[in-house]
Amino acid sequence: MSDETTPEETTEEQAPAAEAPEAAAPAQPAEPVEILHPKERRRRARSAHDGTARPARTPEERQAERQETRAKKAVARRRRREQERAKFVAAREKSGPLPTIPPAEPVPGNPKVRQGVVVSSKADKTITVRVDTARRHRRYEKIVRSSSTLHAHDERNDAGEGDTVRVIECRPLSRTKRWRLVEILERAK
After folding, report:
1. Three-state helix/strand/coil letters over 122-175
2. Residue pair 183/142 in contact by the 8 Å Cβ criterion
3. Of 4, 100, 115, 152, which is most buried by a Cβ count within 10 Å?
C-alpha cells in the first residue's frame, strides 16, 4: 500500500518540480506589458463580455453591493489621503519652517469710471444711468453706437432724470448696484 500513490500526492509532488524550471530561468525576457489608456481598458473589458445577463437581484442586494463598493472606495481614499499628508509633512520638515507673511492690506486697484445720463431716479437712493458708447468696427470701420444701463447708489437723492453724471465702480451694494455716484456734471434743463 505504501508504493501506491494517490492522484493528489502525485500532483503535490510534481508541482514543486514544475515550478523549479520556471524559477531557474528568469533570464528570458518577459512579455512586454501593454499600457492602455483607461478608456481603451474599459472598451476592451466591455467587448470581452459574453452577453449573458447577471442573475436577478433584489433591491436590498443591490443596495448592499453599492454600500460595499462605497466602503472599499472610502478605504482607498483614506489610504491615499494619509499618504499625501505624510508626503506633505515630510516635505515641510525637509524645507524648514514657513516664513510668516503679514496679512496684505486691501488695495483698491483702479475702479472704472463712467459718464452717462440718468434715465430714472424713482427708486430711493438709486439712479439708473444710461452709458452711451461709440466704437469703430474692427473690420468694417463703421461707427457702431451702443448703450448700457447700470444702477448707481445716490446717497442724498441729488440726481434727477436727464442729469449727466459720473459714476465709479464700487463693492456690490445690492443685487444690481455695483456703482456709486461721484458727481453731477450737468443738470437737466
Report:
1. CCCCEEEEEEEEEEECCCCCCEEEEEEEEEEECCCCCCCCCCEEEEEECCCCCC
2. no
3. 152
Buried/exposed code over 25-42 (b: 16+ C-beta within 10 A; e: otherwise): eeeeeeeeeeeeeeeeee
Contacts of 126 (CB under 8 A, 6+ apart): 151, 152, 153, 154, 174, 177
Question: 133 and 164: one domain?
Answer: yes
First to last CA, the chain: 128
CA gap 83, 88 in Å, rounded: 9
- Count of domains forming the chain: 2
Q: Is a pLDDT exceeding 90 seen at residue 11?
A: no
Q: Is residue 72 part of a domain?
A: yes
Would you state the cell numbers that stand for residue 81, as one nine-digit string?
489621503
d(CA 159, CA 165): 8
Residue 72 lies in domain? 60-97
pLDDT bucket at 184, cuts 50 / 70 / 90: very high
Q: Give the Cα separation of 167 and 11 in Å (integer).
A: 93
Q: Which residues contact 183 (CB under 8 A, 6 or more apart)?
A: 165, 166
Separation CA 16–CA 6 (nearest Å): 17
